[in-house]
Design goal:
47% helix, 282 residues, seven-stranded mixed sheet
C-alpha cells in the first residue's frame, strides 16, 4: 500500500467514524426530546390500538412470533404482542420510554438505540413493526428492518395519512408555526402520508407491498389539564415550549382542539391512521 492510499484509507475511516458519531448524537437528541414527558406519552400512544390490532392480525403475530417494534416508545404495541404470546423486542432512542416499555412487556428485550443501526443480526425476526415511528426521510430505517427480517417475514408501519378525519390538523399547524426553524423538517417527516411515498420506501428496500389501509385513532380525556398533558408529550413540542413558553403554547394548543371539547370539559379527538404492510420475499 502506498503512502497516499494509506492516507486515503485513514481519512475514509475518520469520515465514517465522524458520520457515526453525528448519527449517534442525532438519535440521542431525538431520544431526549421524545422522552421529555414519558409518562404522559403513555396516554397518547393508546390511540393506536385499532391500527396495532389490524397489523398484528394481518401479519399473524401470535404464540412464538419473534417481533421487533422499532421506535417502540413506551411499549404499548409490545404489551399487546406479549399478551398474544409473541417474543417481544423493542428499540427506542429514549431511555425514559424504554424504562416504561419494560413494564408493559416484562418478558421482552428492550434496547435504547438508533433505528438506523439496529443491533441485531440479519434475519433475526419474523415480524417488524413501527407504530408512528418511521416517517419521511427515514429510508435507512426501512432498510435496516429489511435486513433483520427473515425471508418471508412481514413489516407493518403506521403514520398520519391524508385522511378525511384528522382532528389534530390544527394542532400540528400550531406546533409547526411555533417552531419555524423546524417546520421544513416536520413537513419532510409528514411527507410519508402522501400516497406513493411509503410504497416507494418499502420497494426501494426490497419489500413487496401487500396492504395499505386505515383505522381510527381516538384520544379521549376528561379535562383541559389532561388534554394538555397528552398533547404536550410528543417530542415535537420541546422547541415550541422553549420558543413560546409553557402557558402560551398550552393556550394555543387547547384552542386548536376546542371544537372537540364537550360542555362537561371532556374531549374526544378522532384521527385517521394509515397503515402499510409489506413482505420480504423468500
Amino acid at each position: 500500500m502506498t503512502q497516499k492510499s494509506a492516507l486515503m484509507d485513514t481519512e475514509d475511516t475518520e469520515d465514517t467514524e465522524t458520520d457515526k458519531a453525528a448519527e449517534k448524537a442525532d438519535w440521542e437528541i431525538a431520544g431526549e426530546a421524545w422522552g421529555h414527558a414519558a409518562v404522559d406519552w403513555m396516554a397518547f400512544e393508546s390511540h393506536t390500538r385499532d391500527a396495532v390490532e389490524q397489523i398484528f392480525g394481518q401479519t399473524g403475530v401470535g404464540a412464538g412470533t419473534k417481533l421487533l417494534d422499532v421506535a417502540c416508545g413506551t411499549g404499548y404495541a409490545l404489551g399487546i404482542a406479549e399478551r398474544r404470546g409473541a417474543k417481544a423486542t423493542g428499540l427506542d432512542a429514549s431511555a425514559g420510554l424504554i424504562e416504561i416499555a419494560k413494564r408493559r412487556a416484562p418478558e421482552g428485550e428492550m434496547v435504547t438505540g438508533s433505528m438506523f443501526d439496529l443491533p441485531w443480526a440479519d434475519e433475526s425476526f419474523d415480524v417488524v413493526t413501527s407504530i408512528n415511528g418511521i416517517w419521511g426521510g427515514c429510508q435507512a430505517a426501512i432498510d435496516e428492518a429489511y435486513r433483520v427480517l427473515k425471508p418471508g417475514g412481514s413489516m407493518g408501519i403506521t403514520f398520519w395519512g391524508p385522511g378525511k378525519r384528522m382532528n389534530l390538523r390544527d394542532y400540528f399547524i400550531v406546533i409547526g408555526s411555533a417552531a419555524p426553524g423546524e417546520a421544513e423538517e416536520l413537513m419532510q417527516l409528514a411527507a410519508i402520508g402522501v400516497p406513493g411515498v411509503a410504497e416507494e420506501m418499502f420497494e426501494t428496500a426490497g419489500f413487496v407491498v401487500e396492504e395499505r389501509g386505515s383505522t381510527s385513532g381516538i384520544i379521549e380525556t376528561s379535562s383541559d389539564d389532561d388534554m394538555w398533558r397528552v398533547l404536550r408529550s410528543p417530542g415535537i413540542t420541546v422547541t415550541p415550549i422553549a420558543e413560546l413558553g409553557e402557558e402560551e403554547l398550552r393556550r394555543r394548543v387547547l384552542e386548536s382542539v376546542a371544537p372537540y371539547r364537550f360542555d362537561d370539559g371532556s374531549y374526544r379527538i378522532v384521527n385517521e391512521i394509515t397503515h402499510m404492510i409489506a413482505r420480504k420475499p423468500k
